């Protein structure tokens, strides 16, 4: 008398590493006589279909972000706040973090201000949002253009952290103590404008840098 094993005969190769008992079939039910296999065949196929659906489930919310440490921290903070507010999103796989490489990430040899300024770190993410590839875009506010792309809105902000900039010097304790003509290095046009507005006697040199702890 031939004995047929459900796990071997009915489950696709891609799912054979799974346990039938996980579908509600205890191990003793894995073997049966061919004459009585009709009902169990249908039940097993249904169980396999459920497992396949679970494995291919589409995330409820896809969050688009850059791949830098700060950008990912902001994206995960957004995810955690969504999960805290909507418990149904706490299920594994309900929220997906989608990393998108932007123009600003690809250009490493030219000053960013010389090739387009605003939008260099947001354009591709916004395009993914408009194309339906993601559901939410998480940006650093400093990277967001003054005018948002048509079809997008800025509905909320994460709670702000410390907004102060750091001043580092070998001798002076503040910008006010620097002698006229001193050169201040910065990676931000915004900071350059603020410094020159307050201290017009200083010079500001824009330096493009990538800091792991700062890049967003």
Automatic annotation (TrEMBL):
Keyword tags: Porphyrin biosynthesis, Transferase
Biological process according to GO: pigment biosynthetic process; porphyrin-containing compound biosynthetic process
Protein EC: 2.5.1.61
One Pfam family named in its UniProt record: Porphobil_deam
Described purpose of this protein according to its UniProt entry: Tetrapolymerization of the monopyrrole PBG into the hydroxymethylbilane pre-uroporphyrinogen in several discrete steps.
Matching PANTHER family: PORPHOBILINOGEN DEAMINASE
Pathway(s) served: Porphyrin-containing compound metabolism; protoporphyrin-IX biosynthesis; coproporphyrinogen-III from 5-aminolevulinate: step 2/4
Protein name: hydroxymethylbilane synthase
Gene Ontology molecular function terms on file: hydroxymethylbilane synthase activity
Family: Belongs to the HMBS family.
Porphobilinogen deaminase N-terminal domain segment(s): 61-205
InterPro entries per UniProt: HemC (IPR000860), Porphobilin_deaminase_N (IPR022417)
Coiled-coil stretches noted in the UniProt entry, renumbered to this chain: none
Cofactor (UniProt): dipyrromethane
Enzyme class at the top of the EC tree: transferase
């Amino acid at each position: 008398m031939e004995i047929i094993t459900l796990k071997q005969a009915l489950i696709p190769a891609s799912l054979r590493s799974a346990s039938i008992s996980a579908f509600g079939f205890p191990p003793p039910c894995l073997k049966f006589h061919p004459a009585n296999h009709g009902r169990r065949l249908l039940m097993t196929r249904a169980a396999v279909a459920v497992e396949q659906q679970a494995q291919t489930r589409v995330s409820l919310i896809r969050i688009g972000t850059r791949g830098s440490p700060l950008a990912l921290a902001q994206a995960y903070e957004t995810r955690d706040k969504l999960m805290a507010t909507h418990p149904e999103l706490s299920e594994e796989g309900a929220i997906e973090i989608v990393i998108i490489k932007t123009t600003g990430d690809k250009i490493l040899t030219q000053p960013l201000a010389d090739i387009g300024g605003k939008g260099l770190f947001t354009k591709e993410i916004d395009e993914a949002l408009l194309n339906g590839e993601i559901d939410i875009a998480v940006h650093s506010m400093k990277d967001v253009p003054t005018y948002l792309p048509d079809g997008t809105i800025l509905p909320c902000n994460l709670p702000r952290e410390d907004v102060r900039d750091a001043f580092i010097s070998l001798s002076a304790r503040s910008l006010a103590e620097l002698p006229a003509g001193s050169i201040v290095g910065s990676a931000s046009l915004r900071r350059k404008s603020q410094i020159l507005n307050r201290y017009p006697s200083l010079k500001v040199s824009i330096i493009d840098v990538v800091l792991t702890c700062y890049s967003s």
